[in-house]
Design brief:
Elements lengths: L20 H55 L9 H5 L12 E7 L11 E8 L9 E2 L12 E4 L9 E5 L5 E11 L15 E8 L13 E6 L3 E8 L4 E6 L8 E7 L1 E10 L9 E3 L14 H5 L6 H7 E11 L18 E3 L13 E3 L10 E9 L1 H5 L3
Antiparallel strand pairs: 1-2, 2-9, 3-8, 4-7, 5-6, 5-8, 6-7, 9-10, 10-11, 12-13, 12-14, 14-17, 15-16
């Protein structure tokens, strides 16, 4: 048998496939470039988003603040300036009971961040919510010194339990009270039968601590302030840069403070004064002793100190309040390395068309207010004190 030996040709080695180290490194480099581009795009987009949201936040804060202050100032003086209310209460020794619709405290250092050249103001608004009668009524029975002695007035439907009121002798003594009970008086005070139908009622009340009670019959008056007498102070919390509201109702044991809006940098307010008695504000002045309107001092010291002879006239002369608030965004924008020394911007408050020093009481804001890289917005409003205008003598 024949055997054939078959010789097989050896096969060539298989060719290797894949990426070399050089190709791998090039691929990684390209990937890193793509990632860097994407991240840069995201950073730019985030910057625009933050800027847009910052402006939006500042606008919402400014509009809210402007709305609240405008609403409160529109109500300022309601009930306390009606009829002869100004004349009756203007000389109250207790300054918190004077019929001052809006009281401005100028340049309060306690509310101003350190280093700021423009200081914050405080604004206090006072009005009542009486629903039945807003005219002072006459006291018909002498009030004794004891707090348990009632006040008798000729106003059967003018008061209800838990109404606040101010009793005054129209000379200087003023008492804040809270009605606790109402009783009809008998025929001694009623010339028309049946008893009590003449409209005389006795008001039992609790009084503010330290107040005096001794008012002569006939000349004394009682002004109803309703269930919710409102005396609110608006101020800046310099540590938190927020606008606070403080319930300064003089009948409360302690003032209650609550935040209203965040990121409020500055609050400024000025009086619009009628100097020629035509019921139009023709002069603007800060609440200081600069005597810019008819050489009359409109500082807080005057309205809260010993009452001058023309106190009622000074209160009536204030016909409007203009308010400016500066608000900022929640977050800072990214600093620009090319402008690393940038410290702020400049602007004007209460400017006018002339845009020069002839603009009454305008205020320049320098870079101690508009500083860093926050987004700022300025809101201004002029609010007529309609209760002062409507109740002009």
């Amino acid at each position: 048998m024949s055997h054939y030996l078959t010789l097989q040709r050896p096969q060539a080695a298989s060719r290797q496939r894949g990426a070399s180290i050089v190709e791998t490194m090039v691929g990684i480099l390209i990937g890193l470039i793509v990632v860097a581009v994407i991240y840069n795009t995201l950073i730019v987009a985030e910057g625009f988003r933050r800027s847009t949201l910052g402006v939006s936040d500042a606008q919402v804060t400014g509009q809210l603040t402007q709305f609240v202050l405008g609403r409160e100032l529109a109500n300022a003086g309601n009930g306390v300036m009606s009829g002869e209310g100004v004349d009756v209460l203007a000389n109250c020794t207790d300054a918190t009971l004077r019929p001052m619709p809006a009281l401005i405290e100028n340049n309060v250092a306690a509310d101003t961040p350190t280093g700021a050249t423009v200081q914050n103001d405080r604004l206090t608004v006072f009005y009542s919510t009486a629903q039945r009668i807003v005219h002072p009524v006459r006291v018909e029975d002498p009030v004794q010194a004891a707090a348990t002695d009632p006040i008798t007035v000729a106003s059967p439907n003018g008061f209800r339990i838990n109404d606040w009121f101010i009793a005054t002798d129209r000379v200087g003594s003023c008492t804040l009270g809270l009605v606790t009970a109402i009783t009809q008086k008998g025929p001694t005070y009623d010339p028309y039968p049946p008893a009590g139908a003449g409209g005389f009622v006795a008001l039992a009340f609790t009084k503010k601590a330290g107040a005096t009670l001794a008012y002569p019959t006939g000349s004394s008056r009682v002004l109803n302030l309703g269930q919710n007498m409102t005396r609110t102070t608006y101020s800046i919390n310099k540590a938190k840069l927020q606008l606070d509201t403080t319930d300064d109702n003089p009948g409360l044991a302690a003032a209650v403070t609550a935040p209203l809006a965040q990121n409020v940098v500055l609050l400024k307010a000025q009086y619009g004064v009628d100097t020629d008695n035509d019921q139009i504000a023709d002069c603007w002045t800060p609440a200081d002793a600069s005597n810019t309107c008819g050489a009359v001092d409109f500082s807080k010291a005057v309205f809260t100190g010993a009452a001058p002879a023309d106190m009622a006239a000074r209160i009536r002369a204030i016909k409007a309040i203009r308010v400016a608030v500066v608000v900022r965004s929640e977050d800072q924008a990214k600093a620009d390395a090319a402008n690393a020394t940038l410290v702020g911007q400049s602007a004007w408050l209460f400017n006018c068309a002339a845009n020069d020093a002839t603009c009454q009481s305008r205020i320049q804001l320098d870079n101690t207010v508009l500083r860093d890289y926050f987004r700022y917005r300025i809101y201004e409003a002029t609010i007529p004190l309609r209760n002062s205008i409507w109740n002009a003598p």
